[in-house]
Amino acid sequence: MPNVSTLTTLDPVLLVQLTDSHLFADADGSLLGLKTAESLQRVIDLVRAEQPVVDLLLATGDLTQDATVEAYQRFRQMTDVLAAPARWLPGNHDDLIPMAEAAVQSRLLEPVIDIGNWRITLLNSSVAGKAHGYLEDDQLQRLAQALSEAPERHHLVCLHHHPVPIGCEWMNAISLHNATAFWTVVDRFPQVRAVLWGHVHQTFDQERNGVRLLATPSTCLQFEPGSTDFKVSTQAPGYRWLRLLPDGDVQTGISRLADFTFKPDYSANNY
């Protein structure tokens, strides 16, 4: 598996995660009154201001809301300005067929990446027509193979759906439904350092058996942490940066837009 860059195993790796952009074919498309392309553009501008060199961009699902080729093409064009290798994985609002059409003549959908002293594995937890996640046998096998074939590397595992409860009761029903099977694989491999996901539109940072568990704000609207029922937060859109160190340590942080105000219009359209 070739590296995606010229980094050596002694170099730190700077990742940027963009997630849950929910773009439409219409550039003015909005969710609950928030124009998703406009908020993504502002987040991209923030990344460019704060991260002069990005070694890899990870887009962890729900790139689009309407799963159109045009929306995926818009995401690809908008993020091209970051001048970084990129990889995508699908979320519950995505469709792999138009996604693959928009990713033509690229490596955007390659699921395993070796970079620096790390291996990053991207899994497809989406279920057609459903909001919850599930890892089919081929995805669990991909994970086990990727981990077993590179025991000398540190590993970051990425998917869309949350494999642990995050404290939002309403999101329990749309989590990864076979999380036990996922953790059964992960727990076999001590080289797994972190698991990263999207879907929850909020920050999460905990640890399980020495593995860092990370979730990230959406580039558009946010969900209220700790909410019992669906509730949109007034927090600003943002992104996560991760610095993967050669010794397996993970440094990471969240950056959000400044001067952002948003009042959700629940009558505009349903999420």
From TrEMBL:
Calcineurin-like phosphoesterase domain: residues covered: 16-202
CDD domains from the UniProt entry = MPP_GpdQ
Which GO molecular function terms does the record list? 3',5'-cyclic-AMP phosphodiesterase activity; metal ion binding
The UniProt keyword set, sorted, is: Hydrolase, Iron, Metal-binding
Recorded E.C. number(s)?
Answer: 3.1.4.53
The source's domain of life comes to Bacteria
Q: Is Mitochondrion a UniProt keyword of this protein?
A: no
Pfam families in alphabetical order: Metallophos
Q: What class of enzyme is it?
A: hydrolase
Q: Which PANTHER family match?
A: CYCLIC NUCLEOTIDE PHOSPHODIESTERASE CBUA0032-RELATED (PTHR42988:SF2), PHOSPHOHYDROLASE (PTHR42988)
The family assignment reads:
Belongs to the cyclic nucleotide phosphodiesterase class-III family.
Instruction: Kindly give the NCBIfam families that the UniProt entry links to this protein.
Output: PRK11148.1
The protein's name is 3',5'-cyclic-AMP phosphodiesterase
